[in-house]
Design goal:
- Chain B: It is found in: Cell membrane.
- The complex is a heterodimer of chains A (about 500) and B (about 325).
- With about 500 residues, chain A is mainly alpha-helical.
- Chain A is about 65% helix and about 5% strand.
- Chain A has 14 helices and six strands.
- In chain A, strands 1-2 form a two-stranded antiparallel sheet. A two-stranded antiparallel ribbon of chain A has the order 3-4.
- In chain A, strand 1 and strand 2 form a beta hairpin.
- In chain A, helix 1 packs across helix 6, helix 2 (about 45-80) packs parallel to helix 7 and helix 7 (about 210-245) crosses helix 8.
- By secondary structure, chain B is an all-alpha fold.
- Chain B has twelve helices and two strands.
- The model of chain B has no long low-confidence stretch (mean pLDDT about 95).
- Classes of the chains: A mainly alpha (about 500), B mainly alpha (about 325).
Chain lengths: ~500, ~325
């Protein structure tokens, strides 16, 4: 494999892995802040137990999110240095803002929250929870603003072959990030909701002590999940319409739509090989005219297909890569403007499908435990625990679709923007040796693998331990000395 | 404006070296100063609430370099690829180890994570010193800013000396910090260790600064280098008199002078090329556009004071010395 493939695999692996922690952290930190607020306002021990229990699971996860995030920031310079030089004038700003405005707040107030129990006044301590949970959202906004600029470059002019920032407000107010941010945040809440439902339902099934804690957690998780899924549909629809306009090839690839249709039908499920460019072998179950509606809010509008888009791209951005030794094997070769269709087509469907399963299971669990009932079947336990994975999968497939769908571009040309502000992925990579990138790819993958095992082990342990595992043990005659720290590593 | 941002980045490095310097030092001294489990927990809890916030200084230094000097960020990070990978792995291990160490009540479990903290702290500190020094002495860059030559181009005698210099500084800084933040036997031991190792641990830093001055020195970087020696000596003298707070502050002055000496020697380059001075990246040719720098200046003008205030408040909240009597019993799910 050459440096380009290795660097792409590394970016893909480290990003998808990082994004397993991030949505749970975002969703859970706000929910925990909410639980703590309920406790401070009502003084109900149930909410205290919820804050402590879910807070502990949040922390186990947070540590991993932080350390895998550092790799993300360094990676742009390490493996994508040509990209960094090209976009630095624009892309670095939101990244630096994330650090200075959001991440400092997040990490400082998280430290205060962890160690501040009993040391800070109750309300100040609660304010720390809100400070770090709000900062996680701000963090997400700045990162998504940076990512959205790659999907839809705005606020720049072209000077000496490089984009130069002309308006930071255009970058921060890019309609792409305004759509991607709610979609991502709702995705985070879908994860947190399913996490609450799955674990709390398992405790109910086990008839653990602290029934009220678990019952409240299931209810909270379900409503959060259902609201999140509704939000995902609305924001996703909005995002899709933007994408038809900004990245028509990505959406045509999401549908494996070979020929332009008017009106266009939405493919629900395909049988056969979607990667065949002639589409002859594909039998698709379709909903007539739905795609037209999704694209343009109009049941009869035209949606362009892959085969008609390719010549347009070739005319605008060339048929062959330039002859340049830095492009390696691709030098002078024809440019393939069609993303990997099986990945985009199925990624799109799996994203929606897993999201729907998560919301459905939440409602089902809510109905099964109505009026104080407790389901006893083994299947219930499996259903609850299994459903935790679904929004994680939905998120991951969503990102794979978004990022793979923009290939072969790393910075996608903006149809209404400045000409020349775009970059092929093949152009973006550092001139490292394959050995260097292979070493880091293997090392990071191994370490991430080991850490995944450790995290699952710890989460399992703390889940099984329930409320008793995280609250001070009152049966033991503990030294109730003012000098003893209420929490220490 | 470019020069201003060069100073901001030097300042972020200063914040990073001063703050994470002591929490690295604590990790490096963990098996030396912590004779039993409770003592090790005392050591870790002196930095528990703050180490994560300290680490963000690095992320912001990296992010600010990307925004203000993309050329510098791209060339340095891609050229020092393998050392940075090692550094990242050390930071990953260390970060999760603090959080996970106490999550299971088992001696073996803690032994493993203690080892990760210890090794991670050493590797990370050596790595910072190596990359920073390689940056000052330069890398074999071509006209495009890409590295020519082996993946180990950043590993030279000078940069290895720099690795030892930063590690030695962190070691003493960590010991001074611990004698300020702990009480009882641990405090005495930390003080004794700081005084005993300082002459050897600080020697590489002195040699490094001499070398930098001989190669690139100007009058005021000489002054800064002398400042490092005076402040470090003063710190140890105050420590010997049990004035730990003053000693810690003087260690801060020492690292501030060191950063001035190193970045002063670098200016107006940001990353010299050892192949041809014409290929060197300078504050002029590696900088972002004036507009981007203006935007970043506004962000920094509002962001930095806020960060200093709330991080300062954190240190105030957790200002008490801690000792073995403060450590609560382990309570984890069985």
């Amino acid at each position: 494999m050459d440096v380009l493939d290795l660097a792409r695999w590394q970016f893909g692996i480290t990003t998808v892995y990082h994004f397993l922690m991030v949505p749970l952290t975002i969703g859970l930190s706000l929910l925990v802040a909410g639980m703590q607020t309920a406790w401070v306002r009502t003084g109900d021990r149930k909410y205290y137990a919820m804050t402590k229990f879910w807070g502990k699971l949040l922390l186990i996860n947070f540590a991993m999110g932080v350390v895998t995030g550092i790799v993300q920031e360094f990676q742009f310079g390490m493996t994508w240095s040509a990209y960094s030089r090209f976009v630095g004038d624009v892309f670095g700003a939101p990244l630096a803002m994330e650090g200075l405005v959001a991440f400092f707040v997040e990490s400082t107030f998280l430290g205060l929250w962890i160690f501040g129990w009993d040391r800070l006044p109750k309300k100040v301590h609660l304010a720390c929870a809100w400070a770090f949970s709000t900062a996680t959202m701000a963090s997400a906004y700045f990162i998504l603003a940076a990512n959205s600029w790659m999907q839809h470059p705005v606020g720049v002019e072209l000077v000496d072959g490089r984009p130069r920032l002309t308006s930071i407000w255009a970058v921060l107010g890019n309609n792409t990030v305004l759509a991607a941010f709610p979609h991502t945040i709702f995705g985070a809440f879908a994860v947190a909701g399913a996490f609450l439902v799955g674990i709390a339902a398992w405790h109910l099934w086990k008839r653990s002590d602290d029934g009220p804690v678990w019952r409240s957690s299931v209810k909270l998780g379900t409503w959060v999940g259902v609201v999140a899924f509704t939000g995902l549909l609305i924001s996703g629809d909005f995002q899709g319409k933007l994408m038809f306009e900004q990245q028509p090839m990505k959406m045509a690839a999401a549908e494996a739509l070979c020929h332009t249709e008017e009106p266009a039908a939405f493919s629900v499920f395909a049988v056969g090989d979607v990667s065949r460019p002639d589409c002859e072998s594909v039998k698709s179950i379709t909903v007539p005219a739905l795609l037209s509606f999704l694209a343009h809010n109009d049941f009869s509008s035209q949606v362009k297909g892959i085969q008609d888009l390719v010549p347009e791209y070739q005319a605008k951005y060339g048929t062959n890569y330039p002859v340049d030794e830095r492009l390696g094997e691709l030098s002078g070769k024809p440019i393939d403007y069609v993303p990997l269709l099986p990945v985009t087509y199925w990624g799109f469907r799996l994203m929606i499908g897993f999201g729907a399963i998560a919301a459905g299971v939440g409602l089902l669990v809510l109905w099964l435990i109505r009026g104080g009932r407790v389901p006893t079947g083994r299947w219930f336990r499996l259903l609850a625990l299994g459903s935790i994975a679904t929004p994680f999968l939905g998120n991951s497939f969503g990102w794979v679709f978004t990022e793979m769908g923009r290939q072969p571009f790393v910075v996608v040309p903006n149809p209404t923007g400045v000409d020349g502000v775009w970059m092929f992925t093949a152009r973006a990579v550092s001139n490292s040796t394959p050995g260097e990138v292979l070493t880091s790819l293997i090392a990071l993958t191994l370490v991430y693998g080991v850490l995944a095992c450790v995290e699952v082990f710890l989460v399992r342990r703390y889940v099984r331990g329930g409320v008793a595992g995280v609250l001070p043990d009152h049966n033991k005659t503990e030294r109730k000395d003012d000098d003893v720290l209420s929490f220490a590593y | 404006m470019e020069t201003f941002w060069f100073c901001v980045i030097a300042l972020l490095w200063l914040g990073y070296l001063f703050l994470e310097g002591f929490d690295f030092g604590v990790g490096m001294l963990l098996p030396v100063l912590g004779r039993d489990e409770t003592e090790r927990r005392v050591l870790i809890n002196t930095i528990g609430p703050v180490w994560d916030g300290n680490e963000v200084w690095l992320l912001v230094a990296g992010g600010a370099t990307f925004a203000a000097f993309p050329g510098w960020y791209a060339s340095l990070f891609s050229s020092a690829y393998l050392p940075l990978v090692l550094f990242l792995l050390a930071l990953i291990g260390r970060g999760v180890a603090f959080e996970y160490r106490g999550k299971v009540d088992s001696a073996r479990w803690r032994r493993v994570w203690d080892a990760v903290i210890f090794v991670g702290s050493w590797v990370a500190t050596l790595g910072v010193g190596l990359v920073l020094t390689a940056n000052v002495f330069g890398l074999p860059l071509d006209a495009n800013g890409d590295r020519v030559g082996s993946p180990f181009a950043a590993v030279t005698l000078e940069s290895l000396l720099g690795a030892l210099a930063i590690a030695g500084y962190a070691l003493v800084h960590g010991a001074v910090f611990l004698s300020l933040k702990t009480e009882g036997e641990v405090r005495e031991r930390a003080r004794a260790v700081a005084l005993r190792i300082a002459p050897f641990a600080l020697l590489p830093l002195v040699v490094l600064l001499l070398l930098v001055q001989l190669r690139f020195g100007t009058v005021w970087t000489y002054a800064a280098a002398i400042g490092v020696a005076l402040a470090a000596f003063g710190a140890l003298a105050r420590l010997a008199l049990r004035r730990e707070g003053q000693a810690f502050a003087l260690m801060g002055v020492a690292v501030a002078c060191a950063v001035v000496a190193l970045f002063g020697a670098l200016y107006p380059n940001v990353l010299p090329s050892t192949l041809d001075p014409a290929y060197s990246l300078t504050v002029e040719n590696a900088a972002s556009s004036p507009y981007t720098l203006t935007v970043m200046t506004w962000v920094a003008a509002f962001g930095t004071p806020a960060v200093l205030v709330y991080q300062g408040w954190t240190y105030w909240v957790f200002r008490k010395r801690i000792g073995t009597r403060h450590i609560p019993q382990v309570h984890v799910p069985q």
